[in-house]
Amino acid sequence: MFDKLTERLQGVMESLRGRGRLTDENISDTLRQVRMALLEADVALPVVKTFIESIRGKVVGMEIEKSLTPGQSLVRIIHEELIALMGAGVRPINLRAQPPVVILLAGLQGAGKTTSAGKLAKWLKDTEKKKVLLASTDVYRPAAILQLERLAAQLDVAFYPSDPKKPALTLAREALSEARQSLFDVLIVDTAGRLHVDDEMMSEIREISAAVNPTETLFVVDSMAGQDAVNAARAFGSALTLTGVVLTKTDGDARGGAALSVRQITGQPILFMGTGEKTDALEVFQAERVASRILGMGDVLALVEKVTTTVDREQAEKLARKLKKGKDFDLEDLHDQLAQVERMGGLSSLMDKLPAHLTARAGAMPQGGGEKDIKRQVAIIRSMTPGERRYPKNIDASRKRRIAAGSGVHVSEINKLLKNYLQMQKVMKSMSKGGGLAKMMRAFGG
Ligand code: GDP
């Protein structure tokens, strides 16, 4: 899911990368592109509107952090808003009510109700150690009843034998009294779905709901359904008091708009997400993970956090100005850069956190990025005199021996460092406009 949306949003972020400052114009342009991407992903229009407006509000009031580029801040705001959009009020399923806890599943035919009933039963049994009874009230489709019965047998969960000749309401009542009598912890009631919302179906499910008085009424929705999902959510939401959402088929490759719309349309939190056809393909919904996935961020957020707390942007910009003036990148500067990288836990730990397409850009980084290497190089530079740091060319053989002794390393290490330095100086010169780390940091996400 979300592949297309991720691709589009990454394109938007790409266009922000490398910008030091955001103008009203490029903020508007970015928001316009985000809006287009969401609409293309079939996110409901009112949801897109409020989403964009709330990002705009935050951007206008945003205080641009010293160590982050504004582009990064914008990405972070979008990420936070995605989490808020999908995850507002997220909570665990309520199992604390007086047993039997009744879970009623509602949704269109094909949304994945029966499958989800089985998955939920398995999850409750395995993870929560609950004694679960499954019941079907889909008397219009004996095949659906049979499907649930088979699923129950396969999962070793109790099934209330639902006779399709009885009215759905009667079956629901019987299942509840069986759950009470046999001391089940949870009763899951699967209901009939139609291909389209119709009044008869709505009044039947309303009656069933009144009869079993559910603790949770979960709206099951196919995340690939787009606008249909929105209409169904509205219809079920007005017929029943929904308490949560189960988002199915998130493993599909469709646009995934429903995932972003359903929280706002129903006003209820997404509790679970179906991630495949198998009975264990059910996950407790985590908005943050899904938001990161939508932005294709991997672990980049963790990196942004780290950069926020450790990189001194002013210092990086000072270096950029210095290089712009045509001054040489000296060992003092290398020391500052290395010390920053050291604070972030070494280059390799940074690289690990980057998505592959960004790592490729950083190919020009000097070798020896391990934490130990960096520490040693910092120590070597510290045992030089200020003059040596500023004019590395003056470091002759006898000075090298003195520095090596001072920092407790072999002379070959000093040579390696100086070679590294010359390489880095070349890289710095070739990045004619920007400053080394500052530019690299921008490449990371802003
Ligand atoms: P119902 O009519 O709402 O009861 O829907 P079903 O439970 O019969 O599901 C309809 C189809 O969707 C079946 O083929 C299921 O295997 C499939 N399905 C349900 N949930 C998921 C899911 O999370 N991922 C995938 N890939 N398929 C699912």
Automatic annotation (TrEMBL):
One of its GO terms (molecular function) is GTPase activity. Its EC number is 3.6.5.4. It is found in: Cytoplasm. Gene3D superfamilies: P-loop containing nucleotide triphosphate hydrolases, Signal recognition particle SRP54, nucleotide-binding domain, Signal recognition particle, SRP54 subunit, M-domain. GO terms for cellular component: signal recognition particle. InterPro entries: AAA+_ATPase, P-loop_NTPase, Signal_recog_part_SRP54_M_sf, Signal_recog_particl_SRP54_hlx, Signal_recog_particle_SRP54_M, SRP, SRP54, SRP54_GTPase_dom. Residues 269-282 form the SRP54-type proteins GTP-binding domain. CDD domains: SRP_G (cd18539). GTP binds at residues 107-114, 190-194, 248-251. GO terms for biological process: SRP-dependent cotranslational protein targeting to membrane. Keywords: Cytoplasm, GTP-binding, Hydrolase, Nucleotide-binding, Ribonucleoprotein, RNA-binding, Signal recognition particle. Pfam families: SRP54, SRP54_N, SRP_SPB. It is an enzyme of class 3 (hydrolase). It catalyses: GTP + H2O = GDP + phosphate + H(+). Composed of three domains: the N-terminal N domain, which is responsible for interactions with the ribosome, the central G domain, which binds GTP, and the C-terminal M domain, which binds the RNA and the signal sequence of the RNC. Involved in targeting and insertion of nascent membrane proteins into the cytoplasmic membrane. Binds to the hydrophobic signal sequence of the ribosome-nascent chain (RNC) as it emerges from the ribosomes. The SRP-RNC complex is then targeted to the cytoplasmic membrane where it interacts with the SRP receptor FtsY. Interaction with FtsY leads to the transfer of the RNC complex to the Sec translocase for insertion into the membrane, the hydrolysis of GTP by both Ffh and FtsY, and the dissociation of the SRP-FtsY complex into the individual components. Belongs to the GTP-binding SRP family. SRP54 subfamily. Part of the signal recognition particle protein translocation system, which is composed of SRP and FtsY. SRP is a ribonucleoprotein composed of Ffh and a 4.5S RNA molecule. PANTHER family: SIGNAL RECOGNITION PARTICLE 54K PROTEIN SRP54, SIGNAL RECOGNITION PARTICLE SUBUNIT SRP54. This is Signal recognition particle protein.
